Amino acid sequence: MLEALNQFALESLADSFETMAFMSPNLAEEPYEPPTNAVLLSLKFANGSCGTVEMVASRNLGKVAASNMLGDDLQSPAQHDDALKELLNIFGGLMLRRWTSQSRETIRMSLPQMREFDTLAEWSAFIASPGTTVLNVEGNVVAMRVRSCG
Known about the structure:
The chain is of the alpha+beta class.
């Protein structure tokens, strides 16, 4: 299940970033440098299958995404965070729709959550976790994974 969800997540992230924010994700090159001013975004899902979609990104990515999505450069930091949450919400929903079209499950998902991410303490373990993909999105490092709750 996790392997399929991680593949759906990667495809869904690319589709949502390209469609909603006009940004093209590509696989990052090693060594993976942690993003500056990083946040961890998470979206839980449950029912037949359950888990969490997680994404580590720089707040700068939120600024670029908000600018692309809203069409101007005059947004607040709260709008930058909202843009990141909305991108996670869209890519998580797209990933789960792809999963449920095969599994025929009904899955509920939570609202996106965000917290500060301590790259010194957390980055190495996050990117070493099985199924984690590290991307370069318009010069911003993004790491994403799906974790099972069971």
